[in-house]
Design goal:
alpha/beta; globular; Spore Coat Polysaccharide Biosynthesis Protein SpsA, Chain A; 16 helices; 53% helix; 8 strands
């Protein structure tokens, strides 16, 4: 009986993995670019900041120089429970500093919800709202791309996410490699297949009417994934703009990375618990593969959790043969080895297709360590998933857009 359950679980995980691998074949090509429209949409640019005095200045300089008519966008920095000079620096740059003080409701989701209410009460209203984190840098043509997509009918748009400090450490390089893979082989296939893409926490653009209609309502530890699921449930497909680039700062140390990823996984368990079955049943009932795919995507955290447990069990079986149970590797070792090889080959392929810096390739040797480290993090997150305490990731790298672009070219 136990053998049958374990083998069934392995087959189910293998089928999900095969489905994800199948999707990657639709990430090899990009559609013809959408039509170009003259700048016409107005934007409220929101920047979420908590004690970001070291990096906020570089982003504000960047945003003030976007290649878009200045009268068509305004910048608002959400100074959320700040105890440093973030708000003062924002005002020195001539930008709106919106100070929020609520230590009981901490986190980016609550800050955005508060800011949107403030925004709706202002005299000027905007066609769309875009959101960034204080440590980001933004391609100067970002708003042009958002304007094009909005004019073409998109209501929720995610930009291409990149890393602004990929070669600071093996940890930041691992994040960069993950971004290359997810942009090319997770997001782009879904765009090409007209499925829902997924929000990445920054570089997001929302049609104002949609936000007013459904509200924000995403206050979990992974507000981006939560809002993505809410959209799909309501029949709205977030899209991807592959040409609009946003550069995110990643933590330098493994300890800081582990703390950040723990928060992500705790939030993922929470979102999956609330959205998996409703989306799955709704998708089956409506014959909507978009909703079924979203349900599968939300369950990835459990796929990783159970996959790690089964893999460790197989390793233990190899060391102690008396603990015998059926596993797919014994049944079809060639197939498992081929699939594993293909998945790893896709990493440098994604980097090659998206023109990664040559320096980043050497970190592929250490990338498996980064991936295996997800296992204990996910395991701990499973047992602490009810912990909704937001933790701040400190950002310190003062890098400007021209620095990032020159390093990418090298």
């Amino acid at each position: 009986m136990l053998n049958s359950i374990l083998l069934g679980a392995q087959i189910l995980l293998a089928l999900v993995g095969a489905y994800q691998l199948f999707l990657t074949f639709f990430g090899w090509h990009r559609r013809v670019k959408a039509k170009h429209h003259a700048p016409q949409k107005t934007f409220a640019v929101l920047v979420a900041a908590h004690n970001e005095e070291q990096v906020i200045g570089a982003l504000l300089e960047n945003l003030k120089n976007l290649d878009y008519p200045k009268e068509l966008y305004d910048i608002f920095v959400i100074c959320d429970n700040c105890s440093d000079r973030t708000a003062d620096i924002v005002r020195e740059h001539g930008v709106h500093a919106c100070e929020r003080h609520n230590p009981k409701l901490r986190g980016k989701g609550y800050a955005i919800e508060w800011m949107l209410k403030e925004l709706w009460s202002m005299p000027r209203q905007y066609d769309a709202v875009v959101m960034f984190d204080a440590d980001n840098l933004v391609g100067t043509d970002y708003l042009k791309h958002m304007n094009n997509d909005l004019c073409e009918g998109s209501r929720v748009i995610q930009a291409y996410l990149d890393t602004k400090n990929p070669n600071d450490s093996w940890v930041t390089a691992s994040y960069a490699i993950s971004y290359f893979f997810s942009n090319r082989f997770w997001q782009l296939p879904r765009l090409n297949l007209n499925l829902a893409c997924y929000l990445g926490g920054t570089g997001m653009c929302f049609e104002t009417n949609l936000l007013k209609q459904i509200g924000w309502g995403a206050t979990s530890l992974v507000e981006d994934l939560e809002f993505s699921m809410r959209c799909v449930k309501l029949g709205v497909k977030p899209t991807l703009n592959f040409d609009a680039k946003v550069y995110d700062e990643k933590p330098l140390t493994f300890k800081a990375s582990a703390r950040q990823r723990l928060r992500w996984m705790q939030g993922h368990f929470d979102v999956c618990r609330r959205y998996f079955f409703p989306l799955l049943w709704q998708g089956i009932k409506e014959r909507s593969w978009t909703k079924i795919d979203a349900a599968i995507y939300s369950a990835n955290v459990y796929n990783f959790f159970f996959g790690a447990i089964i893999t460790v069990a197989i390793w233990i079986q190899g060391m102690f043969p008396k603990y015998d149970f059926l596993n797919l590797y014994e049944i079809s070792p060639v197939l498992i080895n081929v699939l594993s090889t293909i998945i790893y080959v896709l990493l440098p392929l994604a980097m090659l297709l998206d023109k990664a810096s040559g320096k980043t390739y050497k970190y592929l040797l250490l990338y498996p360590i980064f991936m295996f480290s997800w296992w204990p993090i996910t395991f701990f997150a499973f047992f602490t998933q009810n912990n909704k305490t937001w933790s701040h990731t400190q950002h310190t790298r003062v890098i400007r857009l021209e620095d990032v672009q020159s390093k990418q070219a090298s």
